[in-house]
Amino acid sequence: MTDRYFESLTTLTNQQDVDSLQKCFLALLAELFPISYAGNFVPEVRGGLLRVREDLSLFRQGDEQYIKTLRNYELVQPEPLIEKCAQDWRPKYVCEEIGPMLCYLPVKFDDKLHSIIKLECEKLSVGDLDYLLQITQIYSNFLKVIIASTYDSLTGLMNRNTLDMHFKNLLQRQMAQQQEQSDQYQEIDKRRGGKHTAVSLALIDIDQFKMINDRYGHMFGDEILLQVSQLMQESFRQNDLLFRYGGEEFLVLLEPTFLADIHGVLDRFRQKIEETDFPKVGRITACIGYTLVNTMENSAIYIGQADNALFYAKENGGNSVFAFDTLVETGVLKTLPRDSAADWY
């Protein structure tokens, strides 16, 4: 048992991001225990009602195991024991004469429930259950560490370091999704008059934020940043990638979207900011610059392009959305060199 314990600890702590850690944990459980299914359920409260979404699942068939990342992010009513586990944060077990044993394991830290792991497995001994709880606690502790280094403490969005370190992996996942969806989008795309979908990167900057901080104080400035981040989470799709890039600047990596729709998606968000009443400050506006991501370049290339479009928006009255590609096509901006992220105007 001691050897298994330390091997498990080494395997888990070798992971460097949340997605990898979650997949590693499910795979590790399948290696250590006779599991046929494992699911990661994330709880959310919508309209005062508890809902859950399963974002990761593992299935075992014979000696093979399959991990699937679920991307529909559908919120559903939880089954009774998941709901009970979400209420009291205590593990639940169901062991009947017929059928698999069911285990529900809360993953919690900092007085917050992060997720619930559901397992279907052969009957486990008391010793196995104790070990299962120990390894789940190790997972929870390390998940807390990774989240602290991955997410911005004020807004809860991913931080700039996450983008810098994992942009390639994030883009590969987005491109893979684009390929998976291409067939199902093909007929819809024709009806809508478009030809392609694309990944896009957008920078969002709050207009006159320094003046707001100077006039109302940093407490109200932080409240604006927090509320804008909440508007982002409400406005964009669950699998779009949201970052606080620094100061009053945010970054969005949009999953594959119809080319004809990208500008409208971003402009609707700009309008949402404009129409929101912020505490003490009232109404504010924001600028958005974006670019299409179509090759596996360094993230700095695309950030530089989006930043040029953002700068143009701010220099031309603010409260607007501009695409780098359009500004280049019309001769307003020059194309950035492939080996540089320097600004060109």
Structure at a glance:
By secondary structure, the protein is an alpha+beta fold. The protein has ten helices and twelve strands.
Structural write-up:
By secondary structure, the chain is an alpha+beta fold. The protein folds into 2 domains: 2-150, Beta-Lactamase; 158-329, Alpha-Beta Plaits. Helix content is 46%, strand content 27%. It has 10 helices and 12 strands. It has helices at 2-13, 18-32, 80-88, 126-150, 160-191, 209-216, 218-235, 259-274, 299-315, 324-329, and strands spanning 35-46, 49-61, 64-69, 92-94, 101-109, 112-121, 158-159, 197-206, 241-246, 249-258, 286-293, 321-323. Strands 3-2-1-6-5-4 form a 6-stranded antiparallel beta sheet, sandwiched between helices. It has a 6-stranded mixed beta sheet with strand order 7-9-10-8-11-12. Helix 6 packs across helix 7 (218-235). The longest helix has 32 residues, at 160-191. It starts with a helix and ends in a 16-residue tail after the last helix.
Which strands sit side by side, in order, in the main sheet? Answer: 3-2-1-6-5-4
CATH topology term of the largest domain: Alpha-Beta Plaits
Main structural class: alpha+beta
Q: Roughly how many Å is the radius of gyration?
A: 23 Å
- Percent of residues in β-strands: 25-35%
Helical content stands at 40-55%
Low-pLDDT residue spans: 337-345
Q: Determine the number of helices (DSSP H or I, runs of at least 4 residues).
A: 10
